[in-house]
Task: inverse folding
């Protein structure tokens, strides 16, 4: 049932510079995780996306970038799905 | 101590908070916005719990929340949280 999603996650994970990828629903349920992304972070990722979207509820959900020396995470909510992409440091 | 947020290009507003979330300083679009500060604190505290690498000490250096035309850029330094609202101009794709 989740073959399409797994394929998309795989395709994204194989791109250069991508260390991990995670997909969650609006409740924080992990729908898929690859690489350094762990299922345990799905709740945090969903929470951040929802909280950031609530800062400006009249606008489409924003992109959240969390950057550190160990890499960065890009988070975006689209409808009921939230994606997190872990990028390795350059 | 006044923080020179006017030196940040395209700055639209700022908040300076203590680690507990109390507003120390604010200005521009974010002036006196304590409710918005509380919302930011929730986001920051969640972001601090996300492991960015195998090292547990790796906390984020910068947290950006980006919409089409503006963004909030957040950083923590010397036990204070700095939030700056800035205009966002997307870079043009390189023309072939």
Result:
């Amino acid at each position: 049932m989740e073959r399409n999603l797994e394929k998309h996650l795989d395709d994204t994970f194989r791109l250069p510079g991508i260390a991990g990828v995670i997909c969650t629903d609006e409740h924080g349920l992990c729908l898929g995780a690859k690489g350094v992304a762990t299922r345990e972070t799905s709740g945090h990722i969903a929470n951040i996306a929802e909280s950031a979207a609530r800062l400006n509820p009249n606008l489409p959900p924003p992109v959240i970038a969390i950057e550190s020396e160990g890499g960065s995470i890009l988070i975006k909510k689209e409808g009921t799905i939230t994606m997190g992409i872990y990028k390795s440091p350059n | 101590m006044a923080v020179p947020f006017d030196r940040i290009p395209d700055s639209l507003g700022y908040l300076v908070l203590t680690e507990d979330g109390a507003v120390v300083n604010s200005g521009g679009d974010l002036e006196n916005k304590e409710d918005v500060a509380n919302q930011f604190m929730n986001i920051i505290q969640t972001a601090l719990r996300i492991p960015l690498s195998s090292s547990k000490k790796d906390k984020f250096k910068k947290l950006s929340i980006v919409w089409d035309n503006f963004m909030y850029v957040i950083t923590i330094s010397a036990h204070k949280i700095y939030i700056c609202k800035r205009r966002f101009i997307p870079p043009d794709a390189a023309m072939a």
